[in-house]
Design goal:
With 449 residues, the chain is α/β, with parallel strands linked by helices. The protein has 19 helices and 14 strands. 47% of the residues lie in helices and 13% in strands. The relative contact order is 0.08. About 2% of the residues have low confidence.
Length: 449
């Protein structure tokens, strides 16, 4: 990284040597031999890093560090000290300096320290910017996210929210599929009626049937009173069927009939009841694979898969990780009455480099734990859970995470590229891709290609 660097040293030859070396490395460098003059420049011009000697006539080096830190704590200060003056270096760090180098100065070592300082400042700016962005409400205030992949999801939600069609939300566990469903409901014409969620994997078939469709008194042993069921509870509203691919097979035909006719029959009832419900379903399985394995009826799949939305994994959302972390931090700090205000740059870097197998749910838990553990106003690396603190990334640098895409999106783009190359001939494209034609058609239908 390159930046604007202010050098302060009463030795003009030293200033000239550092100026030439750092300029050669691509930095814009300004130097002065007077600390008071340096402070005036520091306050009137934008600098990314200050490099200063500690032993100078006039303004004491430690006092100079104090003054810089009090006025611009976001700008890292690198101090130069004699090899035998470690106590002075430690005092400077306590005064607000970011790091130190010893004399005689090794220019490559100084360049490395400056590079680290620039990255530290950049990350601080990023955290500050994201914190400010978090405080601004958007059209989808339910969500925290500004990555490209989330902007595309917001666009899809805005286009489909007011349409009465069924929606299938897919994605890994912990990615916020229920939040997407609730957002669809809030932005639909049904917003004034109920949003009713149910987990289709949580109950056996008999209980789930009663839960969804209701029952009449005496329909079975424990049916001591009539029960309306969730379809009727969601009348004129939205019914959210979570983990629909795990619904017991024997119940799927009854659900399919309800979706196709708008009629339900409570257990123990002889007549059907009309019900106006919009169904939004979700699954963390690959629904096509569940169909092929015989776990999910194909006709039911086509009925709920009218519009498909993909909840992206957290690792593909780049800097949204920091936005979400700041959001959860403020929420937990307010609830626990702790004066925690933000993330340290080092902690932010750890969050960005971690792979988040548990997605947003895991991030929330990690931040909650860190707020409980911290003794400072900023969360430090030491406050994070051990598996995040000790994680060693073998993937791309955090700076490039914004450009990472889910595997399905990479597949979609490549299939589109092959189709373009063969002039849209699906049979030829299937041979090139090594896919069966039926598999290719199914993927194209799902993506709307």
């Amino acid at each position: 990284m390159t930046g604007r660097i202010l050098i302060v040293d009463d030795d003009e030859n030293m200033c000239g040597m550092l100026h030439d070396d750092l300029t050669h490395r691509g930095h814009h460098v300004v130097f002065t031999t007077d600390a008071e003059e340096a402070f005036e420049q520091f306050m009137s011009e934008p600098f990314d890093v200050v490099v200063t000697d500690l032993r100078m006539p006039g303004l004491n080096g430690i006092d100079f560090c104090h003054r810089l830190a009090e006025n611009r704590p976001d700008v890292p200060v690198v101090v130069i000290t004699a090899f035998g003056s470690m106590d002075t270096a430690v005092e400077a760090i306590r005064a607000g300096a970011y790091d130190f180098v010893t004399k005689p100065i090794e220019r490559d070592m100084l360049a490395i320290v400056i590079d680290r300082a620039l990255k530290h400042r950049s990350l601080q700016e990023q955290v500050r910017f994201l914190r400010e962005q978090r405080e601004q409400s958007g059209d989808f205030e339910e969500f925290v996210g500004q990555s490209r992949i989330m902007e595309r999801l917001f666009d899809q939600i805005s286009r489909v929210a007011e349409q009465p069609v069924p929606v299938l939300i897919t994605g890994e566990s912990g990615t916020g599929k229920e939040l997407i469903a609730r957002t669809l409901h809030r932005h639909s014409e049904r917003r004034d009626a109920a949003f009713v969620p149910v987990n289709c994997a949580a109950l056996p078939a008999a209980l789930l049937e009663s839960e969804l469709f209701g029952h009449r008194r005496g329909a079975f042993t424990d049916a001591k009173t009539d029960r309306r069921g969730l379809f009727l509870e969601a009348d004129r509203g939205t019914l959210f069927l979570d983990e629909i691919a795990a619904m017991p097979l024997e119940l799927q035909p009854k659900l399919l009939r309800a979706l196709e006719t708008g009629l339900i029959r409570p257990v123990g009832e002889n007549t059907e009841i009309e019900c106006d419900v919009r169904v939004v379903a979700a699954t963390n399985k690959e629904p096509e694979a569940a169909v092929e394995d015989g776990e999910f009826r194909e006709d039911l799949f086509y009925r709920v898969n009218v519009v498909r939305l993909e909840a992206p994994p957290l690792r593909a959302r780049g800097n949204d990780i920091l936005l979400l972390a700041q959001h959860f931090l403020q929420e937990v700090a307010r609830r626990s009455d702790k004066p925690v205000k933000g993330l340290s740059p080092a902690a932010a870097q750890k969050l960005l480099s971690y792979h988040w197998p548990g997605n947003v749910r895991e991030l929330r838990n990690a931040v909650e734990r860190a707020v409980a553990m911290t003794r400072f106003e900023e969360l430090a690396v030491e406050d994070l859970p051990p598996k995040i603190r000790e994680y060693q990334s073998s993937a791309a640098d955090a700076d490039s995470q914004e450009d990472l895409l889910p595997l399905e999106e990479v597949e979609r783009q490549y299939i589109q590229r092959v189709l373009d190359a063969v002039g849209g001939n699906k049979s030829t494209a299937a041979r090139v891709l090594g896919l069966g034609r039926r598999t290719l058609y199914r993927k194209l239908e799902r993506w709307g290609l």
